[in-house]
Design goal:
The chain is of the alpha+beta class and about 160 residues long. It has one domain: 60s Ribosomal Protein L30, Chain: A (2-Layer Sandwich). Helix content is about 25%, strand content about 35%. It has three helices and nine strands. A five-stranded mixed sheet has the order 2-5-4-6-7, with helices on one face. A four-stranded mixed sheet has the order 1-3-8-9, with no helix packed on it. Strand 8 and strand 9 form a beta hairpin. The chain is globular, with a radius of gyration of 15 Å. The protein starts with a strand and ends with a strand.
Amino acid sequence: MELVVGIGEYRVSRQKNAVLKTYALSSCVAVTAYSPAQQAAGMIHIALPAPFTGAQGQLRPAYYAVTGVPLLIREMCAGFGCSRQELIINLYGGAESIRPHDIFNIGRKNLQAVRQALAQLNLTVKEADVGGRVSRTLSMDVATGLIKTVTQPLTI
C-alpha cells in the first residue's frame, strides 16, 4: 500500500506492507526517520524553512522545517514508542535553483533549517542525498526502512 506524502505533509506508519512516497523534491526537503526496534517509519515533505507568522506554523506545521521536524520526531516517539537515539534520520532534496542569479536559495535555506532543527533535538543524519540540480522522488519501505530514490535533471 502506497502512502503519499504531499508538499507540507507527513506520514508515520508501522504497516508492514506500506511504502511512504513523496514526489518531485527539488528545493523542498524530505526527512525520513526509521526505528528498527519498532519497525516504524516516518517521512515529511518540507517546503520552507520557517513560517512568516506563528499562525502559519500552527495551521500547517509540516510545511516548515522549524515546526515540521519536531512534529515528525514527536509523532514517531509518542505514537510508536520509538527512542530518539535509535532513529535513523536521512535527508533528501534541497536542490539548487536552475535560474541564474537566484537570490532566494530556498533549497540551501531549507537544508540549513532542517539540520538546525535536527541538531536542536540532538539527532544526526545518517545519509543525505541533497543539493545539485535534480528532482528526487523517494519511496521508503516501512518494514525495512530501505529508501529508493529516482532522480531527474531540473530543466527550465
